[in-house]
Amino acid sequence: MTEAKNPVQAVQRTLDVLDVLRATGGARVTEVAREVGVSKGTVHCHLATLEENGYVIKEGNEYKLGLRFIDLAHHAKDRIGIFDVTTSEVDTLAEESGELALFTVEEEGEGICLYTAEGENAVRTEIYVGYRNNLYHTAVGKAMLAHMAEEKRDRLIAHMEFEQLTPRTITDEYVLREELEAIREEGIAYNHGETIQGLVGAGAPIRDQDGTVYGAVSIIGPVRRMGEERLEGEIPEMIRRAVNIIEINITSL
């Protein structure tokens, strides 16, 4: 994520206040002030301004995020020109596989989940629309990394802070680059329990005729249902069919 060289302190404090409300689901002025590290008076001024503009609401003594953010999210989503056709195919992937299917895009070096669809056997995870994740340990993230422009890929990898989330998480730049090369050759990326132990998945990038990466789709599920034969056979074929339909539609946009 890009860091501002000269952040505006008042704006940063407002964002910190919103982060607290998001993380807690609702908090009192005292709680927000303690988390942000400023006075209750300062926090109250920020909250009052946000409330007046519909970005927070007050229920009793607690402040919560307002539905005005849904309007902002709607307009942010609209700039993803392939959203509708992609979500339709993600629904199909979830139905066909019975698992959890995702549509993710890259922004500022992070994978942002824009859509999820649950099949009849889908596992419950912490993934939600808007969920952010690092690129190096997810199938969608590695699919996008492998196929984006080399200069951008090198820049993102150079700034990665690798974390050992599970015993299988890649934490070495050279190992990651080797896997990305294999992904470019096969067209499919895998997550072999690298994010959550016991949860595996496969994903592929969505690209136009010039090779521009628009995002990626994936199917994830528990290893007990997604054995090697299914994970590297049936699931990739489903994904390839979905991506093919999406990419055909990109040409008509």
Automatic annotation (TrEMBL):
<keyword id="KW-0805">Transcription regulation</keyword>
<dbReference type="GO" id="GO:0006355">
    <property type="term" value="P:regulation of DNA-templated transcription"/>
</dbReference>
<dbReference type="InterPro" id="IPR005471">
    <property type="entry name" value="Tscrpt_reg_IclR_N"/>
</dbReference>
<dbReference type="InterPro" id="IPR036390">
    <property type="entry name" value="WH_DNA-bd_sf"/>
</dbReference>
<dbReference type="InterPro" id="IPR036388">
    <property type="entry name" value="WH-like_DNA-bd_sf"/>
</dbReference>
<dbReference type="GO" id="GO:0003677">
    <property type="term" value="F:DNA binding"/>
</dbReference>
<dbReference type="InterPro" id="IPR011991">
    <property type="entry name" value="ArsR-like_HTH"/>
</dbReference>
<dbReference type="InterPro" id="IPR050707">
    <property type="entry name" value="HTH_MetabolicPath_Reg"/>
</dbReference>
<keyword id="KW-0238">DNA-binding</keyword>
<dbReference type="InterPro" id="IPR029016">
    <property type="entry name" value="GAF-like_dom_sf"/>
</dbReference>
<feature type="domain" description="IclR-ED">
    <location>
        <begin position="68"/>
        <end position="252"/>
    </location>
</feature>
<dbReference type="InterPro" id="IPR014757">
    <property type="entry name" value="Tscrpt_reg_IclR_C"/>
</dbReference>
<feature type="domain" description="HTH iclR-type">
    <location>
        <begin position="8"/>
        <end position="67"/>
    </location>
</feature>
<protein>
    <submittedName>
        <fullName>IclR family transcriptional regulator</fullName>
    </submittedName>
</protein>
<keyword id="KW-0804">Transcription</keyword>
<dbReference type="Pfam" id="PF09339">
    <property type="entry name" value="HTH_IclR"/>
</dbReference>
<dbReference type="Pfam" id="PF01614">
    <property type="entry name" value="IclR_C"/>
</dbReference>
